[in-house]
Specification:
Chain A: GO terms for molecular function: oxidoreductase activity. The complex is a heterodimer of chains A (741) and B (163). With 741 residues, chain A is of the alpha+beta class. Helices cover 27% and strands 21% of the residues of chain A. Classes of the chains: A alpha+beta (741), B alpha+beta (163). Chains A and B meet through helix 5, helix 7 and helix 16 of A and helix 1, helix 2, helix 3, helix 4 and helix 5 of B.
């Protein structure tokens, strides 16, 4: 370095408007930033406008990109690294990614709703491009050359005469500690070298060679192991506990009891498990029968008090229907079913709590844990470490709270808590049960004249903040009440996500019946209400196509104006070899479905072939062909992986899955009682075709496949059997009964 | 003290004889690959190889392992020198969250050791006990096929390039 450089920031960003430079925030946490005036900044820059919240370059040339989102196995750590490397014009390997950590990264809320690319990816895209612009401008100043004559390559600005200034040399005086501008010098997608490439995931090598990759793999010096004894049922009260024998077990360090919260800490993990079983046997609980009748769930739900919202209304009295049909579709409670039970490590030292967790929201979970512990938020740090895939709000936040509550009782010692299988299955917040009622009429020409859609649902997010969202806080003696549920606002919605049709119907009315009472613990599960709403809507489209005597693909296109939507429908049909006569081999059927996730994110169309064993009723997805448009593609293999996974996971939900319970307890508490798809049901092939949209916004692909995959499969089963099944899951028994009926 | 042979090395382990192998591998030997998934032998994420056979380590007590050879994913290869099956899973990008993958790989490895050229149906049947929740199954199948080819290729060991 050649000594301090005085920068005239106006000249650096000539013509770009006033720059607000503040050094007083330097080192302060990123969540305290105030956006400037003027047009809204892209992605999460709108809330966190400082470039160095996203991109930092050290004087030694090290480049770090930051995201407040959490890698959950969806692969965006790699995608974000690609974005930063591309826009900075550096090698992929030159960028180090830091993910969700309340000490280091911006508060981007939850990693959910397929928002990571849209929010954080967009912020990194623009921050990296603007950082590169600032570096070029600074080089132009130093070299006394016009910026247009300079180019960047391999982390340096290069002049026509060959002089080079490395990024590290150029970053003096906090050059990146400036607020972002509304527009960025983005690279032309035609010149992309890293974005758009199937760059291999950075996390996979460690995961396939036994590297430490998960919070479960953490081993801190002096770490002890804890297990929680959860109540046997919702609302159970601990009325008697004789812990003396457990306390005397060699290696048991502590029994932690706070009201109905009960845990045991031991030097070794298996001892903690044994002590947990002994403690559970020594505890007496008072239980109450408070669960609804599982076999009458749709009636129970629709009879609960609801807040009713007319969320969409379109009227054209010039069009009237002649033939009307109606149908009711239902979805049971379904489990996230993470393969690895939730886990966390916490350490309480010098008045500060640190929690390593696979939460999807380090900041909201920190707020909740701080509230539970009665600690100021700045004294609590949450660091995201990967866990087993979660697909929404599983036990992650609860396990983090468990670890924190136990660690507080053992100052100085890191405490690792891992849930048992039956705890994950029995206590995770499920994907909510739902009911949809549809009716529609065809006009004389076989087009839909009017459309009515009503959905009954709980909220689809009971995530923290608010300590009351955490099991430990609910179970403590000074317990925190479960926060009142709220419907998630449109346009994204919750129970009503994708309830509004994307198709162009002259008359359409959509009602959202929001049910506040939650008979079972529920929260966000991949795609929220869109899974069931798209299953219902796209099943009903096939029922109407049947009534009209129309081909399902043509029938959809007849009602679809959205050009990008039409493109994925046509692509999936073409690649599948969809034919108007739908000629399938014996005992097989073809099905089709389409949705644009949330009506504003990625487009996805899926054609499926299913085989049905008429003797047993067993259905298997044989092949699926998907077409997806997620905007500008960053990593095509990442998108393909997400869509393949969505198709298989959705097939599992759709064919097999239902949380079981009696009047008191959850009874689906392991993989025997909650079966999911195994290899004997894996398709022969899945093909994913991506329609890239260079230069268009990122749309996020993580959840777009869930609904179309379900409806496509259901439609294929209806085609194969001639029977329409409307109650999820479409189980072997239901298919067999329908065939025999 | 119990003597346990893991990845070719003897280890003196101070654990009760009823301790499941999984806890010893993860905590006493600090090996990460085998994962706790259910503790019930229902999901396969803890799968390791014992004397050539795929075994669920979460339900295999230490006392049954005297004199046996335990192999974990760490014993097959390393980041710098990955085994064919590890190369295959990287090359096929056969993971999402990856939590189940080590168990999948060990079960597949046991199959490939006794049947170097399995059919697709044989691979599917072999992997039946192992659960994946992300829906990575298609890639896992491709990776096992690729591993079989890599093991079959004479120069598999010399060509260590991983993309």
């Amino acid at each position: 370095m050649n000594g301090p450089v005085i920068l005239d920031r106006r000249s650096v960003l000539a013509g770009a408007g006033a720059l607000i430079v503040s050094f007083s925030l330097r080192g302060a946490s990123a969540q305290e930033q105030k956006p400037g005036q003027g047009p809204e900044l892209p992605g999460s820059l709108a809330k966190f406008p400082y470039l160095d919240s996203w991109i930092r370059i050290d004087a030694d040339g090290r480049i770090t990109a930051f995201t407040g989102k959490a890698e959950l196995g969806q692969g965006f750590r790699t995608a974000f690294q690609q974005i930063a490397a591309e826009q900075l014009d550096v090698a992929f390997e030159a960028v180090k990614m830091i993910t969700a950590d309340t000490k280091l990264t911006a508060n981007e809320g939850y990693t959910s709703g397929s928002h990571s690319m849209q929010d954080s990816g967009t912020a990194i895209l623009h921050a990296a491009a603007q950082a590169r612009g600032l570096l070029v401008a600074e080089a132009a100043r130093r070299l006394e050359l016009p910026a247009e004559t300079l180019r960047t390559e391999n982390a340096a600005v290069v002049a026509p005469d060959g002089r080079r200034l490395g990024y590290g040399e150029l970053v003096a005086a906090d050059i990146l500690h400036v607020q972002a501008q509304p527009t960025s010098p983005l690279k032309d997608p035609q010149n992309f070298k890293v974005m758009g490439q199937p760059v291999p995931r950075v996390d996979i090598p460690a995961k396939v060679t036994g590297g430490a990759a998960y919070v479960q793999d953490m081993r801190l010096p002096g770490m002890v192991h804890a297990r929680v004894v959860r109540p046997p049922s919702y609302g159970a009260e601990l009325v008697e506990l004789d812990a003396a024998a457990v306390e005397k077990m060699p290696g048991v360090i502590r029994i932690v009891r706070d009201g109905n919260f009960l845990a045991v800490v031991a030097e070794k993990e298996f001892l903690a498990v044994k002590a947990m079983h002994a403690l559970a046997a020594a505890a007496k609980w008072r239980e109450s029968a408070r669960l609804p009748n599982q076999n009458d769930l749709p009636n129970v739900l629709t009879k609960l008090p609801s807040q009713d919202f007319a969320i969409f209304s379109r009227n054209d009295s010039s069009v009237t229907g002649t033939r009307t049909i109606e149908a009711t579709y239902t979805r049971p409670y379904q489990s996230h079913g993470s393969i690895g039970p939730s886990c966390a490590v916490a350490q309480f030292a010098d008045g500060a709590m640190t929690v390593w967790t696979h939460t999807q929201g380090v900041y909201p979970d920190r707020q909740a844990i701080a509230e539970m512990l009665g600690m100021p938020q700045p004294s609590v740090r949450l660091i995201h470490v990967e866990g087993s895939g979660c697909y929404g709000h599983n036990g992650a936040d609860d396990a983090a709270a468990d670890a924190a509550l136990i660690a507080r009782a053992l100052p100085g010692r890191p405490v690792r808590v891992q849930w048992m299988r039956e705890q994950e299955h029995g206590w995770e917040p499920y994907g909510p049960a739902m009911v949809t009622r549809l009716s529609a009429s065809l006009d004389a020409g076989g087009k839909i004249a009017d459309w009515n859609f009503a959905v009954w649902s709980n909220t689809h997010s009971m995530r923290p903040g608010g300590a009351g969202a955490l099991l430990a806080a609910q179970h403590m003696a000074k317990s925190f009440a479960v926060p009142a549920p709220k419907p998630l606002p449109l346009p994204e919605g919750g129970g009503d996500r994708n309830a509004i049709p994307i198709y162009n119907f002259p008359n359409a009315h959509v009602m959202h019946h929001f049910i506040a009472a939650m008979p079972l613990r529920i929260s966000a599960m991949r795609a929220l209400g869109a899974y069931h709403n798209v299953f219902s809507l796209e099943s009903f489209m096939d029922e109407l196509a049947d009534l009209a005597g129309a081909d399902p693909v043509e029938f959809r296109l007849k009602h679809l104006d959205d050009q990008r939507g039409r493109a994925v429908v046509e692509k999936a049909a073409e690649e599948f070899g969809w034919s108007r006569d739908r000629k399938a081999p014996p005992n097989r059927g073809h099905g089709f479905a389409f949705a644009r996730y949330k009506n504003l994110a990625a487009y996805c169309a899926i054609a499926s072939e299913v085989e049905v064993d008429r003797e047993t009723g067993r259905a298997r997805l044989v092949r699926a062909v998907a077409a997806v448009d997620a905007g500008q593609v960053v990593n095509p293999d990442g998108i393909t992986n997400q869509i393949e996974g969505a198709i298989v996971q959705s097939a599992s939900w759709t064919l097999y899955e239902s949380v079981a319970f009696d009047d008191t307890r959850i009874t689906s508490i392991d993989w025997q009682t909650y079966p999911i798809l195994r290899f004997n049901a894996v398709p022969d092939s899945i093909k994913v075709h991506i329609i890239n949209r260079p230069g268009q916004p990122f749309l996020g692909s993580g959840e777009t496949g869930q609904g179309p995959a379900a409806a496509s499969l259901a439609n294929a089963i209806a085609h194969a059997t001639g029977k329409r099944l409307r109650d999820l899951p479409i189980s072997r028994k239901k298919i067999k009964d329908a065939i025999d009926a | 003290m119990i003597t346990l042979k893991v990845n070719g090395q003897d280890h003196q382990v101070d654990a009760d004889p009823d301790t499941p192998l999984l806890y010893v591998l993860r905590n006493d030997l600090e090996l990460n690959a085998a994962k706790f998934g259910c503790g019930l032998g229902q999901c396969g994420s803890c799968t390791v190889i014992v004397d050539g056979k795929a075994v669920q380590s979460c339900v295999t007590p230490l006392v049954l392992l005297a004199g046996k050879q335990v192999t974990t994913l760490e014993g097959l290869g390393t980041l710098a020198a990955p085994a064919p099956i590890q190369r295959a899973f990287i090359e096929e990008q056969a993971a999402q969250c990856g939590y189940c993958i080590a168990g999948m790989m060990m079960r597949a490895q046991a199959l490939l050791m006794r049947n170097p050229k399995p059919t697709d149906a044989q691979i599917r049947a072999e992997l039946e006990p192992n659960l994946c929740r992300c829906g990575t199954h298609m890639r896992i199948l491709r990776a096992v096929h690729r591993a079989a080819r890599l093991m079959d290729t004479a120069d598999a060991a010399s060509d260590r390039s991983v993309r």
